Amino acid sequence: MDHNTQYEPQGRHMAPFCLGHPSHALQSEETICRVCGALAAHTTLGIYQVHKLLGIGRSGHAYLAHHQRSGQPVAIKLSAASTANPELWQAARREVRVATTLRHDSILSVFSCSTWSPEQPASGSGAFFGRLDTPPQTYLLTLCQYIPGTIQQFVAYLQNKDNQRTLYEKGSSSAAVLLQVLQQLGTALEAAHARGLNHGALVPGNILFSSPERAWIADFGLARLQPPPTPYLPAELYRAAQAAQQGNAQAYWNAVNPASDQYMFAVLCQQLFPQVLQRHEYEPLLPVLNRGMHNKPERRYPSLHLLVQDLLTLMSRSGNSRGMQQFKQPNMNIDAGWSSSSGSLSRVPPTGPGSSGSSHGYSNPVTPIPALMAGPMTPALPATPITPGTPLTAEDWEKRGDKLFTLREYDEALKAYHRAIEVHPEKAHIWVALGDTYFALERHKEALMAYEQAMHIDPNDPQTWTNRGTALDALGRHRDAVDCYDRADQLRSA
Ligand SMILES: Nc1ncnc2c1ncn2[C@@H]1O[C@H](COP(=O)(O)OP(=O)(O)OP(=O)(O)O)[C@@H](O)[C@H]1O
């Protein structure tokens, strides 16, 4: 039975009907359709009114909703209770928060992740966010950034002859745009891996586009709740996926890792290339993808950015290098650019000793595939533990804080950031880092105070507003939180 993602009701005073199938009749008080499980049109969830079904994924429905006062669009996802157990939900919520604290340009922002039950009053108080006591008929409700473009639209854009001509006139090409997007996705995944986060289901529905040149990965923390279908599932996860299908979702949750994300990324590339590139453009790239999809995880690339780097180098070398020169600029070097000039991520430190002087620049030669195939996987986190030393400068303390945060040693990270702040109380970004750390420890009041201190120093940083909103959400102050998100949006679009 096909569901309906096209229908967007116009009037506000129509008889209630199901957003999934307008023909399904609903009683006036019904919020969820008893036939297909979709929400009724115009359902109000707190201060948002649901307008349209965006799609149905493995674990639930995604909707477009609007903030009732400002009209700001958001995406709301509802996953039914049967998709995960409460402990896993808690873990998912933690991961969602950590993913949001990454503040990566290509990781979808999640505003809140909580529970909702249709029996609760659905309008007015904003009290739809429940606690995780998981009563029956509870849904995991995720409120996140709405990103209108799909991967299908992206492909259609690059296939369009007029667009190809326009890109050509600008000195670019479909290949260059595709690679730019793959690079964004690659850096997002790498940033997540560096924080110990694995995605777990890089399926097309989880790749969104705010413009043809700007891609986002959705559902960090949520995607892992359910295994993806073939061809995205790597062989090493079959058993865990089977266990998940038999009710042990934890098995899949625990089994995903950076190498399995790399596999799925390579599968996505394999699907995209023939649709966007000429055969002579993508054939030289297939060995790279084959390595990314190797049956043995240890034979894949040590990290995803090496895979992207090889794609990039090979594409630049092929006859069709129009628009590729941009990727050779120094700030596209993943390691060197991640913390500052690429603007992609503000707080992810280099992931290993010596990585700041990295040799992973895109202008480097192709990684020799056979030579590395036999090598062990490079761990995403520093192999050597951080030994207590005597850092001399505030910058050292800050770096130490970053590293400890990456290692999830939040208590120690707190100490390090406090030391950095003692010297540099005027640096807003350290207060934000401190706030993120308190947040990771679920010390929400202190997180809020740290974010507010950062805002006092720099009131115009949209990310600080978003983080403050997340802390307020966690403290149950949902209306204040939404005001923060609104302000963040205003600042971003200013
Ligand atoms: N934040 C968002 N903004 C805009 N559209 C979205 C957003 N999130 C999801 N969608 C749309 O809704 C559809 C369903 O999303 P959902 O997350 O439920 O499943 P999926 O991503 O397609 O698959 P999966 O469950 O395997 O992750 C997506 O395919 C996408 O088109």
Automatic annotation (TrEMBL):
It is an enzyme of class 2 (transferase). It holds the Pfam family Pkinase. Residues 339-349 have a biased composition (Low complexity). ATP binds at K77. Gene3D superfamilies: Phosphorylase Kinase, domain 1, Tetratricopeptide repeat domain, Transferase(Phosphotransferase) domain 1. Its EC number is 2.7.11.1. Residues 332-364 are annotated as: Disordered. SUPFAM superfamilies: Protein kinase-like (PK-like), TPR-like. This is non-specific serine/threonine protein kinase. It comes from Dictyobacter alpinus. The lineage of its organism: Bacteria, Bacillati, Chloroflexota, Ktedonobacteria, Ktedonobacterales.
